[in-house]
Every structure is written in C-alpha cells, then in structure tokens.
Amino acid sequence: MRRHFLYAALLYLGTLSAQVGQKEILVYFDSGSHVISAEGASTLNALFVTDSLTINSVSVEGFCDDIGTEYDNLALSRKRAESVAEYIRTHAAIHDLSATGKGEIALNSAADALSQRQHNRRVAVVASYAVAPEEPKPVRSQPAAVDLFEGYKMPGENLSEGDKLILRQLVFVASTTVFEDAEACETELSRYVQYFKANPGINFEIHGHVCCISKSFFDARNIYTGKNNLSEDRAKRIYDYFIEKGIDKSRMAYKGFGRKFPRPGVAEKFNKRVEIVITKL
Questions:
Q1: Residues 96-122: what's their mean pLDDT?
Q2: Are strands 53-64 and 96-104 parallel, antiparallel or unpaired?
Q3: What is the per-residue pLDDT across 13-45, written as a single tens digit (0 to 9) for each?
Q4: Residues of 192-219 as b/e, b for ≥16 C-beta within 10 angstroms?
Q5: How far apart are the C-alpha atoms of 160 and 277, rounded to whole Å?
Q6: Domains of the chain listed by start with CATH number
Q7: Most C-beta atoms within 10 A of its C-beta, which of 74, 145, 178, 281?
Q8: What is the pLDDT of residues 160-213, one digit of tens each?
Q9: For residue 166, what are the β-bridge partners?
Q10: 156 in the Ramachandran plot: left (φ > 0), alpha (ψ -120 to 50) or beta?
Q11: Does pTM surpass 0.70?
C-alpha cells in the first residue's frame, strides 16, 4: 500500500464578521486506511493549538476514492471521519462537533486517475472560529491601565525577591516571536537593559505566557518552528535580547508556562504576556 503524505490546506472560506470566520483542513489517508498518521496529528494540532483563535464548532466529513464497493466505501468514509473526530475530542475542548461519512467520490475523467484518487481519500475539517479581540484602547476617564497592571512593579521601584514586572509595550504577532511594534518594544526593553546594568546584583527569570488555547494543550504552537512551545520561545526571545545588549546570562533564566497561570479578572487576550520575576537582590 503506497503511503501518501498528509497535506493541509488552510483555506479562508470568508468571514462572518470582522471577528469570526472559518478554516478548512484537508487530511489525506492511505488507500483503504482510516488511521491518522503522525503528520496528520501534527496538522490537526496546528489548527487547535493557537494563541489567536477560539474554535467554536467543528464539522468533520470523510470521503473515499472509487475503488471497492459503494457500501464499503461509505463505511470507510465514516471510519475516517470518526477517527479524526475522536482525535479532536481527545485533544481539544470542542462542544459542537459533528462527524459524517460521505462515501466515495467518482473520477472526473480517466486521465490522471491516480492523482484524483489520492486527493479523494480525505477528511475535510471545517472549524468555525472567533479571533481574539484586539487590546482595547485605554480610556482616559477610566483607570484601565492601572487595572491591567495591578500587582506588577516597575524598574526603579523598591523591589523584593519574588516581585513581578511585566513588559507593558510588548505585543507579539499571533503565533510568533515577532514584535508587533518593534520600536515600542525596543524602547521599553532598553529601559530594562539600563536598569539591570545599573543594578548588577539583581538576578531574574523571564516567564512567557499565552492565551486562547484549550486545556488539552500545555502551550501554543510557534508557526515558524512547528513546535508547541510558543510561551518558552517568547521568553527566550527576551532572554536573547538581554544577552545581546550585554546582560550576563548567569543572572537570568527563562521559562514558558503556556496558559497555566491565566490572570484573574482580565480579558483573555491579556493572558498573552512576558513577565520578569526577581529571584535575587
């Protein structure tokens, strides 16, 4: 049985509004098989492990090629759909999930039959999602900024071991370690560099956190590396920056916590953050 690679096509099917839409993933199978490959699992993870989307509902439809009887192909298409649906149930908290088998897909023509049949051995996963809302602009008449950073210290304040500071201007492009506003981030980070250079006795840890992922996953996916360690990668991004600017690495450590420690009383988007924890003075 010839093994066919898994192909994932992320197709935007149009948005219902500025904040919602749909994505489709096509998962291909070997002939006669309903077993999800390692590549298939990785592709499904990529859909459900993200810090920018909240999945509301999922529709799973299974298909077969035209080899075999119509009855057998319908049964196999159902098995493929259910295999994918069961994987999703196990790895993501999706309450609205449907799975159906659609049976075989006939060839369009006799030409290129092999390629057509490979394409027809598939499961289509359509996910309806909501995009995490943009960070609201502070309203001058309300102490929104104070509420957002309550409990955090600032460089230069009277610090104690265990105190936390938060990088207030640091915003990453979704599912990456790229700064959304490089100039604002550089300005804030340079102040930290100056402070730590002026206080060489301070040691600290850099903690990365993400938002918007299911409890089934520890961390979000870094779309550039394909690994589910986005919070750690973001913390390391700051760690590497400090080293580049002359902060001794022996003073620092970095960790990623996924969504293990969400902040109480704030919008979900604000769980995506990088904190600095003082460990030694």
A1: 91
A2: parallel
A3: 333 344 678 889 899 999 999 998 878 887 888
A4: bbeebeeeeebbbbbbbbbbbbeeebbb
A5: 10
A6: 11-131 (3.30.1330.60), 144-280 (3.30.1330.60)
A7: 74
A8: 999 999 999 998 888 889 888 889 999 999 999 999 999 999 999 999 999 888
A9: 275
A10: left
A11: no
DSSP 13-68: ---SSSSEEEEEEEEE--TT--PPPHHHHHHHHHHH--SSEEEEEEEEEEEE-SSS
Q: Which residues contact 208 (CB under 8 A, 6 or more apart)?
A: 230, 231, 232, 233, 234, 235, 236, 254, 255, 256, 257, 274
Q: How far apart are CA 132 and CA 46, in angstroms?
A: 17
- Residue found by looking up tokens 């993870």 in the block: 45
pLDDT of residue 51: 63
Q: Are 202 and 280 in contact (CB under 8 A)?
A: yes
pLDDT in tens, 218-271: 888 888 888 889 999 999 999 999 999 999 999 999 999 999 999 888 888 888
| Predicted pLDDT of residue 144 | 45
Q: In the beta sheet, which residues pair with residue 255?
A: 207
State the Cα–Cα distance between residues 106 and 83, nearest whole angstrom. 23
Q: Helix, strand, or coil here: 274? A: strand
Residues in the chain: 281
